[in-house]
Design goal:
The protein has two helices and seven strands, in the order ββββαβαββ. It is α+β, with helices and mostly antiparallel strands and 102 residues long. The chain has one domain: OB fold (Dihydrolipoamide Acetyltransferase, E2P). A seven-stranded mixed sheet has the order 1-2-6-7-5-4-3, with helices on one face.
Length: 102
């Protein structure tokens, strides 16, 4: 795809990850998102924490979900900051997220 947004694999820097959305799913209590490509954080833990998650009761949950849907549809990268740095005990809890419009 040579430089297109669809080839943008996730990259990590501490607790911050940037990438294109591969999957979004909702459970009865949380939104969960995974990036395209191999998330370096997930690789460090054998893939046990490849999802970023936030509760549906979070004050900004609907806004974040809307941002994720648009980012996924347009295949533009989004930045997610996790509360922990590559926790090995499960999915990473989202602290905040944003998208740059360059």
């Amino acid at each position: 795809m040579g430089g297109s947004a669809t080839s943008y694999a996730a990259t990590n820097s501490g607790q911050t990850t940037i990438g294109v959305i591969e999957r979004i799913y909702i459970t009865g209590y949380s939104y969960n998102v995974r990036f395209v490509g191999e998330d370096n954080c997930a690789k460090k833990t054998g893939g046990s924490n490849e999802y970023y998650t936030f509760p549906i009761t979070h004050p900004t949950a609907k806004s974040w979900y809307a941002l994720l849907l648009v980012a996924a549809q347009t295949k533009k990268p989004v930045v997610i900051r996790a509360e922990t740095d590559c926790a090995t005990d499960g999915n990473k809890v989202v602290s905040y997220m944003y998208q740059d419009f360059k």
